[in-house]
Amino acid sequence: MDTRESQVLDAHDLEFCLYDWLDADGLTGFDRYTDHSRETFDGVLDLARELAENRFAPLNRPGDLAEPRLVDGKVVLPEELKLALDAYAEAGFPAATMSAEEGGIDLPNLVYRAAFLWFQAADIGAVSYSLLTTGAANLIRAHASAELQERFLPPMLDGRWFGTMNLSEPAVGSSLGDLTTTATRAADGTYRIRGDKMWISGGDQEISENIVHLVLARTGGPGTRGLSLFIVPKWLGGPEELGERNGVSLVGLNHKMGYRGTTNAALRYEDAVGYLIGDEGRGLKYMFHMMNEARIGVGAGAAALGVTGYLHARDYARERIQGRPLEAKDPSTAPVPIIRHPDVRRMLLTAKCYAEGSVAVILYAARLLDDATAAPDPATRDAAALLVDVLTPVAKSWPSQWGPAADDLAIQVLGGAGYTRDYPVEQFYRDNRLNPIHEGTHGIQGLDLLGRKVLLDGGSGFRDLLGRIAATCDAVAASRPGLADAVRSRADRLAAVTTAVWETGDPLTALGDATTYLEAAGDIVVGWLLLDQLRALGDRTDPFAASKELTATFFIDHLLPRVDAQLDLVAATDHLLTDLNEDLI
């Protein structure tokens, strides 16, 4: 694996996470991955890096400046974007995790996720078309009929057709039970879709031959149980002959703060032909297949942008000469690189923690997915699947909260230069600011974690998480007692607070501060993962090991203590937010 320094991603940290910490080599012992080796994994990662640095990174700033626009009813995007996505598809990345029969190479989720980080860090707006397409294809493969799979999957996995997910409407955002788009069964067994959809990423463009929209629409009564899921293509024909245009039209494009390489559209469905996926009334259940995959993908994008922002700020701080050491009294003393100043070091270390912590939680979740789908032992598979469910809100929201914070700190390190378009860190921040919003807002993830995920299967997944944290603390207690105690005590408090709020018997009381709970739980999880990386380092004393030690120590000593006040607030179960008079806000 190429570990030369890069401003796109930290290749050395990625190598450590994959091989020393998460044992990617061990995945080759699973039947599904037996044809792979470290050599093939490194080949995929090196190819991803090459394409990301040479094809995607050069498009990042031009794609931001050349915002998508409508000309004669068509979306205009840079021609280079299509060339980059074609190269991505030709390299086999859209189908990489699928079987050879499906056109893939059965690449482990862990290695695929690490490879995809390169593209997300290089140009997140460009590669999001592929993220959406792969997610849509995985849903179709899991839940659609064989006939629909045969029709839609090959051109999607070839990179010729792109996919989208259509949930929100102009008057309905996250409250999916209130969706009004309807689907009526026609005599030929297809459906006619009518309604308006809003905030559709990749909703229209001219760089793919066709667009496969996955649309939630109402076939039954009120609420989410009345929703079904449909494939609604932009063009009705097949891969060789697109045929006539379907009844889906572009109403307009939304003008975004960042993430501009991905179009965001308002769409109108007027008697559009739709093909039912699975059974009526189970649409939201099917859509969660793509949504949960996308949530980890969003967290990964936030992590990647946080890493590249940190790397740019670190390199700038090493080179920028300004000011003198605090102890220097003589004005003739030579100025020093700003990385020598304590406050700059504070900002860089904080951003480093957010960047490395975000990558850690994303890759750990990816490794769990491999255990859940391919481990030889059924008990291991079941436990991993449950733990992925528990950790998904954290994997989505922790990087999405702190990745933008890392980019905000990068701007601050650069000072006035960081606030200009002459340096890329301001774009990283603007691009990253979307991630706390889409695929389930920060607040929704809090409700999901405290209201659902910690309670799954009688709380067994949550207990497994606490057990893994305790095992790591036990493993490093002799060598790093202070760090182990700091993580253990917070995990114990999290367990006690979780029990206490649900003992109230009142969901309103328990969930009033769910977002604060999510933030505290996320910090504890990341503190544990950074500590577990120290366990994997063992007694190494090289510069990389010292750098990882610094990350874990700074996070646990300087940032983790903020959870104490947060857990105090959650434990108080006060009703300030639920009972206040909104006229006073």
Account of the protein in words:
The chain has 585 residues and is α+β, with helices and mostly antiparallel strands. 55% of the residues lie in helices and 11% in strands. Strand 6 and strand 7 form a beta hairpin.
Compile the SSE list and pairings.
Layout (H helix, E strand, L loop, with lengths): L10 H11 L16 H28 L3 E3 L2 E3 L2 H12 L18 H35 L2 H12 L3 E6 L15 E4 L5 E11 L8 E9 L8 E7 L14 E6 L10 E13 L6 H37 L22 H33 L3 H37 L10 H8 L9 H10 L8 H17 L4 H23 L3 H5 L2 H24 L5 H17 L2 H11 L3 H4 L6
Parallel strand pairs: 3-6
Antiparallel strand pairs: 1-2, 4-5, 5-9, 6-7, 7-9, 8-9
Helix pairs in contact: 1-7, 2-3, 2-4, 4-5, 4-6, 4-7, 6-7, 6-8, 6-9, 7-8, 7-14, 7-15, 8-9, 8-10, 8-11, 8-14, 10-14, 11-12, 11-14, 12-14, 12-16, 14-15, 14-16
The largest β sheet comes out as: 7 strands, mixed
**How many helix segments?**
17
**Oligomeric form:** single chain
Assess the beta-strand content as a share of residues.
Answer: 5-15%
Determine the N-to-C terminus distance: 54 Å
Instruction: List unreliable stretches of 5+ residues.
Output: none
Number of strands: 9
Category by helix and strand content: alpha+beta
Give the topology string: H per helix, E per strand: HHEEHHHEEEEEEEHHHHHHHHHHHH
Determine Rg (CA atoms, Å): 24 Å
Mean pLDDT: 96
- Relative helix content: 55-70%
